[in-house]
Design a protein that fits this description.
The protein is of the alpha+beta class and about 230 residues long. It contains 6 helices and 12 strands. It has 2 domains: about 30 residues, no CATH class; about 190 residues, no CATH class. Strands 5, 7, 8, 9, 10, 11 and 12 form a 7-stranded mixed beta sheet that branches. It has a 3-stranded antiparallel beta sheet with strand order 1-4-6. A two-stranded antiparallel sheet has the order 2-3. Helix 4 runs antiparallel to helix 6. Bound molecules: zinc ion. Zinc ion binds next to strand 8.
Length: about 230
């Protein structure tokens, strides 16, 4: 069969435009320009959709409102010199309780909501037959650099969250510091949670990364991609 390549190329160029302009209707899950719906399982477009939220507060709120997260809007500010907080919210609770509410860039909050619904809770149900009821965290915003470097941490813009452990519905506690190195179901669960976090967050670092992360999972939405 003879293929007329210029026509094939032209179709490939027009197809995205047709979707963007709404000339062709595709499911929102398959439309890169449709708002991110947290209830839908992540797919190949999720990373792109999360990236778009960074500069578009309105789009980000739409995504947030598709989740069960309860949050309070936070005005843009610079709490400390060189650490501006923009397009951010205070996350009060979700399907789980938090050890305390936390400040989060809107896209970090959306990534967290995706992680909880499609990664954390399914892993807890598989491992323990019950959901997580509470997430213990060590904070999100801190105006500081990474370790001893000159580079600003993602925490400096509330774009990172450190999770120390979980409490199940029956009160059982699972802690990164205590259970990571073990061989029990808790250790397996924590590894599954770390792997699942890699699907939602740009960076996921745990005890296997370095000693500074021996007691928590660092989750952030920075530029880099790292999963350790
Ligand atoms: Zn951290």
């Amino acid at each position: 069969m003879r293929v007329f390549w210029p026509l094939v190329l032209l179709s490939l160029m027009i197809a995205p435009l047709a979707v963007q302009q709404g000339w062709v209707q595709v499911s929102p899950r398959l439309n890169p320009w449709a708002p991110l719906d947290v209830r839908q399982p992540p797919n190949l477009l999720t990373g792109y959709k999360l990236m778009r939220l960074q500069r578009d507060p309105e789009l980000c709120r739409l995504a947030l409102d598709s989740s069960v997260l309860r949050y309070t809007a936070v005005a843009d500010s610079e709490p400390a010199a060189g650490c501006a907080v923009q397009n951010s919210v205070r996350v009060d609770r979700s399907a789980v309780q938090f050890s305390s509410s936390f400040l989060a860039s809107c896209r970090l909050a959306v990534a967290y909501a995706l992680f909880e619904e499609h990664g954390l809770q399914p892993a807890a149900r598989r491992a323990f037959g019950q959901p997580v009821a509470r997430v213990d965290h060590l904070g999100s915003f801190a105006c500081r650099n990474i370790g001893n470097s000159q580079r600003r941490s993602q925490h400096a813009t509330a774009n990172a969250l450190d999770i120390a452990g979980f409490r199940l519905q029956d009160g059982r506690r699972i802690s990164v510091a205590r259970h990571w190195a073990g061989k029990g179901p808790e250790a397996l669960f924590l590894r599954e949670v770390r792997d699942a976090a890699c699907d939602s967050f740009r960076v996921t670092l745990g005890p296997e990364y370095n000693a500074a992360h021996r007691d928590h999972l660092h989750l952030d939405m920075g530029l880099f991609r790292l999963c350790r």
